[in-house]
Design a protein that fits this description.
The chain is built from 14 helices and 25 strands. By secondary structure, the protein is of the alpha/beta class.
């Protein structure tokens, strides 16, 4: 299968625009496509999925072992051998853990999977100076790092220039190719019709853009004229010649042990839509029959559920509507009181608090499983990768068990006592310790009440098979309780 990774010197260079445009072109040409996003981002894969109509997968070398990453990639490419695997990078090409290591960077993932890279460079306000920038990326090799970082290969096989004048492009292309020996595979012109805005967690969600498909159509029209598709496909063929990565089974995962089936509710609507495909797959492999529902639009939980996942998203934008759906809040509260296993992540955690403030500062009542109020903080809270360790035996974890994840949120959970804001851990002791993978920073995370576990961290389930197994076992235990009619 042909393979290609779209990288950039920094965020905002045009990776997402180029990736989405290429996906639309591949769809038009009926070329089988597998799409991926490097790193933990949820939103870009939603755009990929909206464009090509199939699941886009995260490739994350902090969450996964080298072997696990190859397995995720290989499984997604199965049945599409005559097509193209298109990967969108994250941040700048070398940017990894703590901002100073190449670990978990786009560069590392390209190395692990042997994928040729096209560097998209923002050319606005520059011309020949771009040669120095591109040369630096071709010749720089970061020290330290793991896996693919040990090889002194940039894997950058081509360049695409973003926001460059069509008039200067031919001469600039000639100069760059002559002086650097790098292929210049086209350019992205200024696109006045694109109106994809951002908010505090990144891009707005694709379902919020009414004319998204129309914009993508215009984008692909423009790129078909300005890109050298033959050159791009030729670069992608270099990855095919190096061979597909082997498919490895991650130690301790997918051992073939599958428990009895249980029904697992998954909250999915405009307010809750952040889920890792691998997490849901892990639950299915443990016996879960996934049943989607909407806390916004449905009046109560689906019948005969044995467990519940409430993922992240933007509940603060829909706080009023969530508050008005009283019967759903009651349904979830009562399920928690009966002992149904529930995992709430970030936005899901905010929904499980007593109150949630909207961006306008209006406080709305939520499900009320945990005390406190979700309020907008002054800055991004606890951003980045973390490893969480259970401080004691708890729901779904034994003491000392570790799971990997990340945090990315502006809203904070505030404890209230007699109308005064208090330190949350002094009132509701956290059950896990979150630590940054590089550096010494750590903090308390995760609250538990009965079989409800929630907090701001987003877990990556395959990094801790014990969590999936214990959650599934708790669901089966609740199933027996439910079927007994008690």
């Amino acid at each position: 299968m042909k393979k290609l990774l779209i990288a950039a010197p920094k965020s905002g260079s045009g990776k997402t625009i180029l990736t989405c445009g290429l996906l639309e072109l591949l769809k038009r040409k009926e070329i089988p496509t597998a799409s991926f996003k490097c790193g933990p981002d949820y939103i870009d894969p939603l755009f990929h999925k909206r464009i090509i109509g199939v699941e886009s997968r995260n490739l994350d070398s902090f969450f996964e072992t080298q072997e696990g990453l190859k397995k995720v990639f290989s499984k997604s490419c199965q049945g599409k051998e005559e097509g193209l695997a298109l990967v969108e990078g994250v941040m700048g090409y070398f940017d990894g853990l703590a901002g100073i290591l190449p670990d978990a960077s786009t560069y590392e993932i390209a190395g692990i999977l042997n994928i040729p890279v096209i560097l998209v460079v923002d050319a606005r306000g520059a011309s020949l100076s771009l040669a120095a920038l591109i040369k630096g990326f071709l010749e720089y090799f970061p020290s330290g790092g793991r896996y693919g970082c040990r090889e002194k290969k940039s894997r950058i096989k081509g360049v695409i220039l973003n926001r460059v004048s069509p008039g200067i492009y031919p001469e600039l292309k000639k100069k760059l190719e002559e002086e650097l020996g790098i292929l210049v595979a086209g350019y992205i012109p200024n696109l006045d019709f694109l109106h994809i805005e951002s908010r505090h967690l990144g891009l707005v969600l694709p379902h919020e853009i009414a004319d998204l498909q129309e914009q993508m159509g215009k984008l692909s029209d423009a790129l078909e004229k300005s890109l050298d598709l033959e050159m791009i496909f030729k670069i992608a063929e270099e990855g095919e010649k190096e061979g597909e990565p082997e498919s490895f089974r991650k130690p301790g995962q997918n051992s073939g042990k599958k428990q009895a089936p249980f029904r697992l509710g998954v909250a999915r609507d405009e307010a809750f839509c952040f889920y890792y495909h691998e997490n849901l797959k892990a639950m299915e492999e443990a016996g879960a029959q996934l049943t989607e529902f909407s806390p916004l639009h449905h009046k109560e939980l689906p019948k005969d559920l044995d467990g519940l996942l409430i993922g992240g998203g933007y509940p603060e934008l829909y706080a009023g509507e969530l508050a008005e759906n009283e019967s759903m809040k009651v349904s979830i509260y009562e399920a928690a009181q009966k002992g149904m296993p529930i995992h709430g992540e970030c936005g899901g955690y905010l929904y499980l608090l007593e109150y949630l403030e909207s961006p306008e500062g209006i406080s709305y009542p939520m499900a009320g499983i945990f005390k406190g109020i979700g309020k907008k903080g002054r800055s991004l809270g606890n951003f980045g990768y973390i490893t969480l360790t259970a401080k004691e035996d708890m729901a779904f974890f034994s003491k000392g068990t570790k799971i990997r994840g990340h945090e990315f949120h502006y809203w904070q959970a505030i404890a209230m006592e007699k109308g005064q804001e208090r330190d949350r851990n002094s009132l509701f002791p956290a059950r896990m310790q979150a630590e940054k993978p590089a550096g010494k920073r750590s903090w308390q995370a995760m609250e538990q009440k009965g079989n409800t576990l929630a907090g701001f961290p987003h877990f990556y389930y395959p990094s801790c098979p014990e969590f999936t197994e214990n959650f599934a076992a708790a669901c089966l235990k609740f199933q027996v309780f439910r079927q007994s009619g008690r």
